[in-house]
UniProtKB/TrEMBL annotation:
Residues 15-286 form the Carbohydrate kinase FGGY N-terminal domain. Belongs to the FGGY kinase family. Residues 311-444 form the Carbohydrate kinase FGGY C-terminal domain. This is FGGY carbohydrate kinase domain-containing protein. It comes from the Eukaryota. One of its GO terms (cellular component) is cytoplasm. Keywords: Kinase, Transferase. GO terms for molecular function: D-ribulokinase activity. GO terms for biological process: pentose metabolic process.
Length: 482
């Protein structure tokens, strides 16, 4: 009987989604119906020194392995049951040498610190210089590059860390590096290259229906652009350092999971691994393709319904994304990006550079923060739940019709980390209007709510969303690899 049960369990088709955010790596296991079988997360280290924000690819890989193993244990899933893997991650910049070892991107010289995190703003001046050249590729980035994109960061490293620049063999988006680390295949994703590297994805358009076009030689790099901005050496070797091969998200890579990576993850070699997605864009796929139950029969076959939706993906930052059949050029709004999220649709993308990060900043720097944290811990609830309870009780005491009424005299301009869109000004500053000398928990609750109006419970805080939000989005393209 035990043997029969084991066979039945091992006949399951289980899919693994790995989502690496700014503060942790999450792993989740799902069945064919999308049911979450188990998940786990592992924290990742981050260094912050002024505008420089750095991480370690070695640390992140260790966190991924720990999260995957823990998730398998929690879900009681054997490695041979996993039939596909999908990675999603922040659009951070990874530097490695010819052996795949980390190369420092830090003033400290610490080789562990080989990732320029997406929210790093060290390259503001480089972005301004690049944008002043008015290259044709900039029209596909809302008219100008953000310092959160990769070319300005690359230029900063070349101008400030010459030794590191000469040592780097591959510059990669973090999600591309994860799939490369898992498979040994250096094929990049249309999602990452189009959205963050100025790759012109629509160069694939005419070849989209050709045999093997999903894994063809990269044809969307504008060599003149790289020459003009002083990074012409990245064109060498058919763009070997930034991507010779670019594929649609979800395209199976190499021969699947390598034996070495399989051993580290506790899985089986050869499992299909898909070309990656940026974390927010993977979430966008899931939301964009979903249809309310009441509309599923009526609109299920209406592909144009996708063009009438906007996706809001929340986390440390926030992304607002919409797709269209035709190009939409909107100053200050990123895009149009071809096939960067939904295949063969143009993506336009806005957002805010600091949302969850700003909420954390407001709470952590308030006079009542320490006392609030102690009270939350004593009640075994989150700080955000405690603040929400405070808001609800205050609303009841004052006999107000809704919680938002509490903040009518408090206003927050949330550009504490610059403005992503539509002003597209990384130097923009934030402010809070309506402050008094009150330093109570009540006042903190009001400021936090003014920053995020409409919150009903702690789940509305981006950083406290269940891990399955990120895991499910990474999984979406893993399931296509069966």
């Amino acid at each position: 009987m035990a043997s029969t049960t084991a066979i039945a369990v091992h006949d399951r088709n289980v899919f693994l989604g790995v989502d690496v955010g700014t503060g942790s790596a999450r792993a989740g296991l799902f069945d064919e119906n999308g049911k979450l079988l188990g998940s786990s997360s592992s924290p990742i280290q981050i260094w912050k020194e002024g505008d420089c924000i750095e991480q370690s690819s070695t640390d992140i890989w260790h966190a991924v392995c720990a999260a995957v193993k823990a998730a398998c244990s929690i879900a009681d899933v054997a490695g041979e049951e996993v039939k596909g893997i999908g990675f999603a991650a922040t659009c951070s910049l990874v530097a490695v040498d010819s052996d795949g070892s980390p190369v420092t991107v830090s003033w400290s010289g610490d080789s562990r610190r080989n990732i320029v995190v997406w929210m790093d703003h060290r390259a503001v001046e480089q972005a301004q210089r690049i944008n002043s050249r008015n290259s044709p590729v900039l029209q596909y980035c809302g008219g100008g590059l953000s310092p959160e994109m990769q070319p300005p960061k690359l230029l900063w490293v070349k101008e400030n860390l010459q030794e590191s620049w000469s040592m780097v063999f591959r510059w990669m988006d973090l999600s591309d590096w994860l799939s490369y680390r898992a498979t040994g295949d250096d094929t990049r994703s249309l999602c990452t290259t189009v959205c963050k590297w100025t790759y012109l994805g629509h160069a694939h358009m005419q070849k989209n229906n050709e045999k093997d076009s999903r894994d063809m030689e990269a044809c969307g790099w504008d060599d003149d652009f790289w020459e003009e901005i002083g990074l012409g050496d990245l064109v060498d070797g058919h763009h070997a350092k930034i991507g010779r091969s670019v594929a649609f998200p979800g395209h199976p890579l190499g021969s699947g999971l390598t034996p070495a990576a399989a051993q580290e993850l506790g899985l089986v070699a050869g499992i299909p691994v898909g070309t990656s997605l940026i974390d927010a864009h993977a979430g966008g796929v899931g939301v964009m393709e979903s249809v309310p139950m009441s509309d599923s029969e009526v609109k299920g076959d209406d592909v144009e319904a996708l063009c009438r939706r906007m996706v809001l993906v929340c986390g440390t930052s926030t992304c607002h994304m919409a797709v269209s059949r035709s190009k939409l050029f909107i100053p200050g709004v990123w895009g149009p990006f071809w096939s960067a999220m939904v295949p063969e649709y143009w993506l336009t993308e806005g957002g805010q550079s600091a949302t969850g990060a700003l909420l954390d900043h407001i709470i952590e720097n308030h006079a009542a923060s320490s006392h609030l944290a102690n009270r939350a811990a004593s009640q075994s609830i989150s700080i955000y739940e405690l603040l929400n309870k405070r808001l609800e009780s205050t609303m009841t005491e004052l006999e107000l019709p809704f919680i938002a009424s509490l903040t009518e005299d408090i206003h927050v301009l949330p550009d504490f980390h610059g403005n992503r869109s539509p002003i597209a000004d990384p130097k923009a500053k934030g402010m809070i209007s309506g402050l008094t000398l009150d330093t109570s928990e009540k006042q903190l609750a009001l400021i936090r709510h003014a920053k995020a109006p409409g919150d009903k419970d702690s789940a509305c805080h981006p950083r406290s969303l269940p891990t399955r939000r990120g895991l499910g989005r990474a999984l979406l393209h893993a399931r296509t690899l069966r």
